[in-house]
């Protein structure tokens, strides 16, 4: 049995043939077609077929797909998918019929969580929380070895942090995404300095250079992110908290002060158990492919 994982992104479609050890044996990437849902379905079929060519072409195939939106995984249906014309499409059923194989779909952050538990920084853990810090804030969780899955069940970025706070793209005010994403860090830095920051790396560089405004913004950001992580510790008692996204490339400049703030909060708030380690996710740009394949492992 061959397993194919597909990362369906707004810019590219990336697919890989994955073995049970989490190694991508063969991969293909194409630009995502936005003209119609049918065009994307055609691309998905072509990717699978290209990975199935060769001497083992008669071997059975199973296909997992990571999707950036709200997914009804049990029914194989895409509920909403921003910027990709698949809303309301019963994608698993359509592809299964066209490819004559089993197809599973899942939210991309949920897939990333599953991939880290199978192949990455949370290997063999039964209770895990993953947060992705990028343009927005996403995440997933596993509880007692089971992925929390459902229509929007792990939309962690759109849970309230500040009542009556800043407006969020979802229509609410004060969502965690507005205060804990990489975009939030850049906004805070510009608010403290009067402007000029365009990337999170520039903020970290300014902090390293002892820039007073950047340091104040970074302290504000760490405080917000630590509060959110402590909430997840309270709710899930995870063995590990994982952080993904480009901002984690800052390494210890991010993780050391963040861990220190989490420990400070927990020491006065939570007792009776060890504070879980907060670690960078390991699967990087392959998170979607590996996590989608892991739906079958």
TrEMBL record:
Instruction: Return the PROSITE patterns for the record.
Output: ROK
InterPro entries cross-referenced by the UniProt entry: ATPase_NBD (IPR043129), ROK (IPR000600), ROK_cs (IPR049874)
Q: Which family does it belong to?
A: Belongs to the ROK (NagC/XylR) family.
What's the protein here called? Answer: ROK family protein
Q: Which organism is it from?
A: Yanshouia hominis
What lineage does UniProt assign to this protein's organism?
Bacteria, Bacillati, Bacillota, Clostridia, Eubacteriales
């Amino acid at each position: 049995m061959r397993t194919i994982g597909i990362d369906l992104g707004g810019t590219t479609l990336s697919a890989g043939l994955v073995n049970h050890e989490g190694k991508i044996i063969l991969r293909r990437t194409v630009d995502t077609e936005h003209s119609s849902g049918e065009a994307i379905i055609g691309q998905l079929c072509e990717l699978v077929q290209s990975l199935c060519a060769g001497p083992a072409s008669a071997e059975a195939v199973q296909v997992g797909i990571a999707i950036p939106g709200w997914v009804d995984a049990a029914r194989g249906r895409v509920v909403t998918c921003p910027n990709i014309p698949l809303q309301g499409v019963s994608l698993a059923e359509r592809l299964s019929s066209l490819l004559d194989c089993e197809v599973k779909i899942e939210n991309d952050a949920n897939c990333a969580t599953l991939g880290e538990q199978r192949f990455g920084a949370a290997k063999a853990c039964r209770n895990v929380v993953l947060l992705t810090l990028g343009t927005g804030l996403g995440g997933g969780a596993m509880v007692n070895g089971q992925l929390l899955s459902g229509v929007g069940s792990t939309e962690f970025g759109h849970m309230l942090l500040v009542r009556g706070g800043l407006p969020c793209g979802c229509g609410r005010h004060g969502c965690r995404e507005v205060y804990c994403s990489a975009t939030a860090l850049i906004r805070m830095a510009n608010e403290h300095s009067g402007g000029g920051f365009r990337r999170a790396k520039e903020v970290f560089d300014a902090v390293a250079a002892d820039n007073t405004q950047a340091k104040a913004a970074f302290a504000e950001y760490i405080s917000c992110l630590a509060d959110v992580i402590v909430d997840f510790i309270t709710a899930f008692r995870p063995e590990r908290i994982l952080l993904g996204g480009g901002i984690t490339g800052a390494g210890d400049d991010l993780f050391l002060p963040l861990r220190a703030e989490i420990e400070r909060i927990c020491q006065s708030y939570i007792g009776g158990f060890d504070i879980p380690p907060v670690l960078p996710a390991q699967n990087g740009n392959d998170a979607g492919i590996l996590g989608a394949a892991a739906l079958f492992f």
